[in-house]
Model the fold of this input.
Amino acid sequence: GQQVMQIPQYQHVQEGEDFTTYCNSSTTLSNIQWYKQRPGGHPVFLIQLVKSGEVKKQKRLTFQFGEAKKNSSLHITATQTTDVGTYFCAGGVAQKLVFGQGTRLTINP
Amino acid sequence: SQTIHQWPATLVQPVGSPLSLECTVEGTSNPNLYWYRQAAGRGLQLLFYSVGIGQISSEVPQNLSASRPQDRQFILSSKKLLLSDSGFYLCAWSGGLNSNQPQHFGDGTRLSIL
Done:
């Protein structure tokens, strides 16, 4: 079936370093959504991108949707310990939302 | 505002026992409802979704079933649990089946099979 691939699976950084996770699909997505799951918690919706080449920012987080609407990225500038968790992308494919496998971010304070 | 309730929060069950997990949504009508399973440290696997009362779509063949007896109630069941059914079960709702709608998750149920 249709898959949305997300890399890397794990990322460990020093506090203050930047972090990026990437999401790729073999087919065009109607939209891309990003979710954050804190350790022991449930996924929480962060943002949605719909337009080709769209870029949105939330404080230190920058979200991009590729021109072909097949890839996306989430970039965190100057990570803080509160950024710890697993970040999931989810792409709209044929009326369904397909989740990537997530990138688990751990931070060394 | 809309809220989603899921219970129990944790559950320990012996192999072969039945299962019933319940999820209810408040503050919205005719939501689309979803059941996901998340293995430890893994991604979200969509198990079932429902667009209305009595309407259930299964995404993967398995030992589980789902029912929607009321508009805002979604139940996940099993007649006989397997060891492989262990995991973190998440219920979610969205405002429409259109994939442009964000999904909102409950707190989840951690199920351990002994």
User: Anything to note?
Assistant: Chain A has a mean pLDDT of 95. The interface with chain B takes residues 30-31, 33, 41-45, 48, 50, 88, 90-97, 99-102, 104 of chain A (CB under 8 Å). Chain A is about 0% helix and 60% strand.
